[in-house]
Amino acid sequence: MKLNQLFSFFDTSGVRPEAGDFLEREVTGICFDTRKVTQDSVFVAIKGSDNDGHNYLAQAASAGAIALVVENKSNVPADYPYLVVELGDTRAALDMLASRFYNYPSHELFCFGVTGTNGKTSITYILEHILAFHHKKAGVIGTVNHRAGEKVWTTQMTTPDPVTLQARLRDFVNEGAVAAAMEVSSHALEQSRVKSVNFNTVIFTNLTLDHLDYHKTMQNYFEAKQKLFTDMMWLTHKSPKFAVINIDDSYGRRLKVAEDVIAWTYGQRESDFQFKILNMNFSDTEIEVKTEVETIRALLPVTGRHTIYNIVASAVAAMSFGISLEQSLEAMRNFTGVPGRLQKVNSRSEKIVFVDYAHTPDALENVLNSIVQVRAESKLQNKIFTVFGCGGDRDKSKRPLMAKIAAKLSDFVIVTSDNPRTENPEAIVNEVCAGFSGGEKNFESIVDREQAIAKALQAAKPGDVVLIAGKGHEDYQIIGTEKRYFSDFDVAKKYLNQELL
Prior knowledge:
Blueprint: H1 3-6, E1 30-31, E2 42-44, H2 57-62, E3 67-70, E4 83-86, H3 90-101, E5 110-115, H4 120-133, E6 138-141, E7 146-148, E8 151-153, H5 162-174, E9 179-183, H6 186-190, E10 201-204, H7 212-215, H8 218-226, H9 231-235, E11 241-246, H10 250-254, E12 261-267, E13 273-280, E14 285-290, E15 295-300, H11 305-321, H12 325-331, E16 343-344, E17 352-356, H13 361-377, E18 384-388, H14 398-409, E19 412-415, H15 425-433, E20 443-445, H16 449-459, E21 465-469, E22 476-479, E23 482-485, H17 488-499
Parallel strand pairs: 1-2, 2-3, 3-4, 5-9, 5-10, 6-9, 10-11, 11-12, 12-13, 17-21, 18-19, 18-21, 19-20
Antiparallel strand pairs: 6-7, 7-8, 13-14, 14-15, 16-17, 22-23
Helix pairs in contact: 3-5, 4-11, 4-12, 13-14, 14-15, 16-17
């Protein structure tokens, strides 16, 4: 794409005539990181929490940038001969330019956007499975990775920056995908990363305590999520447009949607898609879903109440794509689960071991409540052991709350290290343990995560349940600024297999 085409929506009247024909040059890329500037690329200066791109304009210019997009021209080199565009919001400009550069890929895809504190990853996996069952390829953008069929890209963020996001959507189109299922974080909504994505259907799972280190208050956090259902849906050119909302969540009941959006509610209370759990054990769950026109029963190879919420949400969203509720539930009969989401560690051991990503108070409470409920309904006497920690450099307010929840719903708790990052692991563990009341004796702390998992598995008897929570699918630990290989799943499997030797 030529530079003048890319900037046709922007005011370029200030371009100096003596600059020659550079506006006719082909743009090689859009970037906001000077390490990625190439000859004839466009550099957008972004103000971040740690760095300000305006401090690197000279480097971008010397690296060959053909245009600089800024909020303040003061750091632009005096002898810079090419295009300088000054705007009030360069984040929004980056999003718009990236979408235009990659020729609006979301227009060619049926786009699902999923937001909420918990359940985003699971819903994208489930939607991908339902569509694949019906021979429709969906690309997925989320916490675990980006993928389209057999093609997989690694990722560092739940929702990537606009350049990566738009490039990936174009990759999906090139790979033959007809849909995209995307996790949309509150950070992404605040930072204009998805403003140019034309969503067809947006999904709200729940809202609970998390990310207050960034948003400061729950109201701010909610308002960030709200943008997906109003601001983003007002901007989309798709029609019809749908919103799928968990009506059992108090924030879901407060959620507003744009006027031209068809809103569908789901949950266990009265709603458009009301479900009931008929039977549940550690292997499968029988449910009933009731609508105005039909009642459908299904036996699903999963466990956990929160998992059923995610399946129902996905099945409702798939209806907006043209797949019936019954067809979606039929597709789920051969679902093998989501990595690190109540993922069972299979072995010949009679101990029941799950790995789960639960890293918020609500997520931990949901998964433990599900285990407690299944144990009660199965009339089992087995004990529940929980191993968990809290990440460093993240919201500290949830640490003692998670300890209270774990102690209440487990027979024994081991508090350990998660991703300590730049915090002292022992200090984090101590802050978590402050949530235990003085009279509780059903816990201990072991900072080394592998030792903590080994201790829990050693203490468990056949039939007991061990929940290893907090990291889920992650195959690393971040200690300081270094990533070290570590997989809860692999560690658990190793010690379970050692018991059988």
